[in-house]
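Model: You mentioned two targets. I'll fold them one after the other.
Researcher: Yes, keep them separate.
Model: Target one:
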Amino acid sequence: MDLHIINCGFFKLDGGAMFGVVPKSLWQRTNPADENNLCTWATRCLLIEDGNRLILIDNGIGNKQDAKFFSHYYLHGNDSLHGSLKKAGFDPSDVTDMFLTHLHFDHCGGGVEYKNRDNKEPRLVFPEARYWSNREHWQWATAPNAREKASFLKENLLPMQESGHLHFADPEEDSPFPGIELLYVNGHTEKQMLPKFTYKGRTVVYMADLLPSTGHIPLPYVMGYDTRPLLTLEEKERILKQAADEHWVLFLEHDPVNECCTVKHTEKGVRLDSTFSLSDL
């Protein structure tokens, strides 16, 4: 197995929304905000090269939304989905499996594009790939609650289904990816999936939005976006304790600086142990 980081650029979100009830005087120590109270976040995806399968986990925001949409999120940086794939030596047509941890726009928007600016006919960015979600989350996303409706965009979702490329993992069955276990968590959104696998003798977990950054490690640091924050607390506690016990490597999708981290037990609970690049493993 080989791993490649696919950086899709940076965007900004309100710091208060990202840290929920935690005061700014605390969260700004790890994630400083600009004059508009916005913090910078990465869209850091992961490409797994394993035998005949090339599995991309999440794909960023994409570029098909209008100027008004992007004005809210301040996309910036030199990295892009296509550029990072090319840098890793691959073409979008090489991807066999497009795995989506969940269907919020910053995780799945890059999987569908328009043919050109004038022709808004959608097409899949990864024409040979199976696009993976799960049935419960798909139903949640396509008939969204009012709280999450702005994060589930039909132009990101329906082309996957209409193309015939949509497939569902089943929580009651084995993972469709040999060697990759799927952890299901429900606090952020219904049936978010976290891939867990062994790489160079280490257990790696792709943390998606259960742990957006190292700044979110303390248990009360839960996003205001989460639909069930008390459940997020329970899920974070369980997974972070096991990560500390077993020295897991936690891959961070949104941390603007750190690609990976480990955690440890302390008198104050589980806390950050170390940060490092994936290439350091």
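Model: Target two:
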Amino acid sequence: MKKTKYLLIGAMLMSLSMPATAQDNKAQIDEIANIIKSNPADLAKQMKDIYKKNKKNSEVLCGIGRTYYDLKDTLNAKVYAEYALKAKEYSPAYILLGDLAARANDGGEAAKYYEMAIYTDPKNPEAYYKYANVYRKVSPQGAVDKLEELRAQRPDIAVDAMIGRIYYSSNEFDKAIESFRKADINAMEEADLTSFAMSLWFSQKYDESLKIAQTGLKKNPRDAAFNRLAMFSCTDLKDYDNALIYADALFNKSDSAKFSYFDYTYYGNALSGAKKHTEAIDMYKKALEQNFEDKTKRAGVIKQLAEGYKQNDDYENAIKTYQEFLASVEKPQANDIVGLAQLYTQYANTMEGDARKDMFKKAESTYAGLKEKFPDAEEYSIFWVARINSYMDPETTEGLAKPHYEQLAAIIEPRAEKSASDKARLIECYRYLGYFNLVKDDRDAADVYWNKILELDPENEIAKQALTISNKK
């Protein structure tokens, strides 16, 4: 068997000794590549003979180097690239050396070789593309300028999509969109269509992003990236029915699809928007089973799961999950804590009797704790503690909210300039205090507050009516 194998390789080697005019270089390169890949025992000797017969043929020598490159034999790839350059200045050989440098993560050296390839053959588009690809990490604009040089040399080659790709990879989405719009969308590669759609999506141009994704789906209905973007865009457009159609296509009808927590989260958002809250909860749970880049993003999904439970009127799990969210956040912000207080309040409103009061007490305690952790939130904290106490005393017979509204009013009243929010809170304070005194049959004290309301809002009907009733007595 080995003897037959070497005879065949020998026959191939003999054919390579024929003049280049008798057999095109590509065929020679393919035959030599087969010899290299078969790795015969006397490969070194054969390659030595092949080199001798082709030492003036830069194309063949570079092709051999490229074969070694593809096999990850960087040493021999470099040797044959240099052999090719020894024969003559040859642009693809410089490109090969640039690729070797890029593989070694030496972007500067790679750019130098690609520049030499451009100088050797100013009309070779591959050299410009490779230069732009490595140089974009250093200077996106420098990479774009190089592609503009290619446009000047080769007006027949469309470079706008490549420029868009560079801007996209540099997170300059507005410039990417501008460049992609200049390109022929029907001639774009799938990767560029995806980058175009993503640029639009990141720029919150959801309608346009959807259209580009749909263009991609016409070419390849089973493309995961396009189905994903269509799902994202429809969800953000609140077109939940179509979002769910694309979600089904992504998860069940796409080729080689790999899913992240973000996919499951968006699917959950679409289901939630379509009022399919139980299914949404399942998706958020699946999202939490995935790998996360950091704890903050995972915490965000836990918060969405809590919202899913709330939308499903499952307040017990909503509160439990929200508490898990707060525990997973390194430094919860005031708004995060307010979210828990709101859940307690909403849950209390579904209850009666002591259970209702106990849940309001939890809300009160949570709001009260705000001013301890966030001194700037003191006014907000007092305002909501007052409201919660008014909820616990709906007939205003106990005056539970009275000290809190008085405290709030004392904070706001001294301000020379009062905002619309200040006035609204003061009116709420005065309305409660006026009504409390009315319930206690202290009309003179009540009238003081009704008049204070009219100073802030002369057309306030509640205050007017209260004073009218008081004057009749």
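Researcher: Noted. Anything on target two?
Model: Residues 1-22 have pLDDT under 50 and may be disordered.
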